[in-house]
Amino acid sequence: MSWKKERDSLIAQTMAFVQSVAGRKEEAGPASARSTPAPHPPEPLPPAALEPRETAKSSAVAEPIKTAGPLPVAPAVPRQAVAGEMANEIRARIAGFRAHQERFSREREEYFSQTLAKLKAQIKEMPPPRPDKE
């Protein structure tokens, strides 16, 4: 099917849907006519149809909106179980991060202590400074 035919079919289906939503189902035709591609694009609406209509105030009660029924809902996982599992995972990650940081801190302290000890040992091994002759 060429893209033009697909486009025309989509336009026809959209117009049929709009007409059914607007309450003009008798003009839309049967459901099988909606799925068949239109031979040409539908004609644009006349300007009078695009102008806002004035609503007459009457004592009649508006009809309730008809729905197709409740939407299927996936079975819900208890919120506390998900939150508890996530909280446990977060706590475990934080504990791992803290342990990692503490290890880095210990290694840094050890390296500093070793370097300072080597420096002090080298300073002790140095010969005493000679007094300058003036």
What does this 3D model show about the protein?
- The chain contains five helices and no strands.
- With 134 residues, it is mainly alpha-helical.
- Among the domains are: 3-42, no CATH class; 78-126.
- The longest helix is centred in the C-terminal third of the chain and has 47 residues, at 79-125.
- The chain is elongated, with a radius of gyration of 41 Å.
Give me some keywords for this one:
59% helix, mainly alpha, 134 residues, 5 helices
Task: Summarize the amount of helix as a percent range.
Answer: 55-70%
Give the overall silhouette: elongated
**Strand residues, percent:** under 5%
Task: Classify the oligomer.
Answer: single chain
What Rg do the Cα atoms give?
Answer: 41 Å
Structural class, by secondary structure, is mainly alpha
Largest sheet, in brief, is: none
Contiguous helical run count: 5
Total strands: the figure is 0
- Spans of at least 5 consecutive residues whose pLDDT stays below 50 are none
What is the average of the pLDDT values? Answer: 76
Distance between the termini: 107 Å
> What is the H/E string?
HHHHH
